[in-house]
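Q: Convert this sequence to structure tokens.
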Amino acid sequence: MSAHSTGPAGDSPVRSGGAPLGRPAYGSPRRWWAFLAEHPPPGAATLNRRWRSPLRGPWLTSVYGVVLLVGLPLVFVTGLLDYLAYAPQFGQAFPHDVGWLRLPPFDWPTRPSWLFRLTQGLHVGLGITLIPVVLAKLWSVLPKLFDWPPARSVAQVLERLSLLLLVGGILFEIATGLLDIQYAYLFGFDFYTAHYFGAWVFVAALVTHVALKWRRMRSALRSRPLRRELATGRAATRPERPDPDGLVAVRPGPATMSRRGALALVGGLSVLLAALTVGQHLNGPWRRTALLLPRGRQPGTGPTGFPVNRTAVAAGVDAADTGPGWRLSLRANGRTVTVDRAGLLAMAQHTATLPIACVEGWSTVQTWTGVRLRDLAALVRAGRIGAAHVRSLERTGLFRQATLQANQVLDADSLLALRVNGVDLTLDHGYPARVIVPALPGVHCTKWVAEIEFQGRTDG
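A:
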């Protein structure tokens, strides 16, 4: 019997299964790729001809890629370090349960005292500074996002999927991060959980994308010397040669800007964003330039005019809670010692100049005076200290209590502060007493302290 037959007059020969000879059988991958290519959505056939910038090409895309390849992993690593600074071993880092993404146990150090100030400042500041580079990179590959068919093989499907996760991941992290530091909680989900897992999704996609594109990126960077491109003006700017990825325009138009100009524009915008955020770390008039960080600006003048994250009104703490009737309870090993503010002032006072850094990225350095936490532990005969649990008068909020590690309790500069810059704390700054610990996240430097419970060591 013949392996194939002829269909009705005028038809092409067909296999016994019904598919025309010379074309892949129905249901095969090649058949699907061909079907997609033959049925583009309206306008797809002419869309690529509309992307006419002669600047687009592997070289410019790779330059932006190198910058992000250096900067974004640093943003990711500092984010992980900040997560560790919240002591997840005590269940007080957010999110609480991260499953197999749990980081190794780690006691956050107290030295250098500016450690958290550095990591959180880099995480937020560098993340903002890189936004123009991210957008420029997306612009350089924009035509590929509309390429049709979207893939021509299974390998390309996997590549496009990683690209989708890469682009979606970075845009999600930027958008939610910016909204969080602006206190614009517009999302109907927990920011901390989404931001943490979103970062891991992005990094996985980034590693995959770099593995797939590393050779082409390296080849593209070698194709055009950077020095030559920086010396080339607009009139001499020419398109790159057609590339396998199709980044070069099919019908490039005249250049309206040189590649040198494009790099200068993106770099200038990044410098501008850096200038509008760096003031969040500088005391005095420079803090007014922190236009992108509302909590990082200078709210007042004088020794207590530095920023606050959460005011007493927002925390539900009023003068009646902190008046003459206020008492601090110290607990350890079943014992309780109660002391008022006058009693604390009568104890040995210690002064330390320490930064306080907020999760939004801003920080400030002030001079604090109060009682060492280790002296309070000795007062209640705590013995060998494993941790200390601090509770606030604050009635609501995620950070109305915090657990401190042993090294944080025992550090010589860890204080229950009563005064700052030579004057009593104000109510917004935690009066009558607040915790100050070197390198500790600001939200764990608990304000309006009501109780400290010292816990002993459980190891041998």
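The two ends are 86 Å apart (CA to CA).
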